[in-house]
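Structure, all two chains, one model.
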Amino acid sequence: MNTKVYLCGIEIDNPVIPASGTFGFGKEFAELYDINCLGTFSFKGTTLDPRFGNPTPRIAEFTGGMLNAVGLQNPGVDHVIAHELPEMKEFFHKPVMANVSGFSIEQYVKTCEKLDKEEQVGWLEVNISCPNVHGGGMSFGTDPGCAREVTEAVKAVTTKPVIVKLSPNVTDIVAIAKACEAGGADAVSLINTVLGMRIDLNRKKPIIANKTGGMSGPALLPLAVRMVYQVYENVSIPIVGMGGVSCAEDVIELMLAGATAVEVGAANLVDPFACKRIVEELPTVMKKYHIENLKDIIGGAH
Amino acid sequence: MKQGFFTITENYAMTSSVYRMELEGDTSAITNCGQFVDLRLPEKYLRRPISVCDYAENKLTLIYKVVGSGTEIMAGLPVGTKLDVLTGLGNGYDTSLSGSRPVLVGGGVGVPPMYNLCKKLVAQGKQPQVVLGFNTAEEIFLADEFRALGVEVHIATADGSVGTKGFVTDVIKNLDYTYFYSCGPMPMFKAMEQVMTTSGQYSFEERMGCGFGACMGCTIHVKSGYARVCKDGPVFFREEVFG
């Protein structure tokens, strides 16, 4: 039973990757289990300058998932390099995925340039799809021209594989994925959260202070499978699939749709041991479906 | 923090909207008064954070108010139900700074965590005094349990139906105390900020995602920057947040 896959030239022990924004910088989970059992993890979305994020309440839920509008709270790239990365070295000994966000091409470039120099960073995941910030984030990910421009600009200043994280809040995700590929992206990851809203019946106002929030959780799996499947048919770079994954079967389903590796998001927040459990379940579930070598099933549904 | 299964042994209404739930399970991860637990409920995706009212070996007491669909489900759970619970969450109160005669101030559903704190202070040989604030007589709960600990209990009701008419601050103004501990709604903290004369600690409430510091859903501003209510709190020093 072999769970190893190659993600942009780097071999990882298994395709299970906690998604950015649900795993902090790993510390809270390293207190619970040895997180070196993971393929890697994508750390908290980092911007050039520190950000407080949105006012609270930032969280709501629905049948089958949750909504968040954290708004990229993070201490800024310099702090991440000076404090979070050295601390992470103590408990995580594999290449980590650095998740980057910005409000202008210049900010993406400067942040990626700094993180690219860090030895611990294996991949740069460039988030052009955050739905919870205004005047940035998702606006780069909803226009193919902008998506390509950001990708080209980041590629020009970096040496490590660049994975561009895409938004599902578009009419045609294939067009965006193709633009990223044309811009030199080494991979794409999808899907980020889906823009939603809940209204409090007592107050008769939106629950979340930001009014809208990004939906995540099990209800999103079919949307993610469909989008990964469509993108796989139209690009030749690897895909990191995510959206509603909560068990090993979901990982296999996204891989069959075309994902080389799979990120796990909201599940970490309701079950802090979710990723460890998925890693441990994988061999059993592979056996059940007669899969000897996990990398052989990538795109197998086509 | 620990994840484990707890069995409900009692679950009953104390007032028209406040319930008491007794559970059996491994409480070894609970290390301090003022911590909370995070319950997974049937039909709900996110866990529900509830403050610990009291605990002992294998025994957990939660007192909660029905405020929405999650706590409504909790109130309907029969004895014998097994729940997936994260225990030992949050920092809790620092009792080393209390002095000999601290005042404990609980407002509404902020009253339960004061109980375990009070027990601990009494065990340390201190003479805590308790101030409880409610809207009206029918909403009062836990006052007798506090009295049974042998401490002085003052009650304020907004409508004057029991105790002092007004707010907890109307009682506190006339008390002598060495330190304060509080849990309750933000407007109560703001009113307290106008009258408290010593250092103290506030326990904050915020809508949470995970409850253990991963999602940044419950962040508040503190003087040094920002803090997560679930992991850096829920208890913060007065001086960290206000003034």
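The longest strand of chain A covers residues 121-127.
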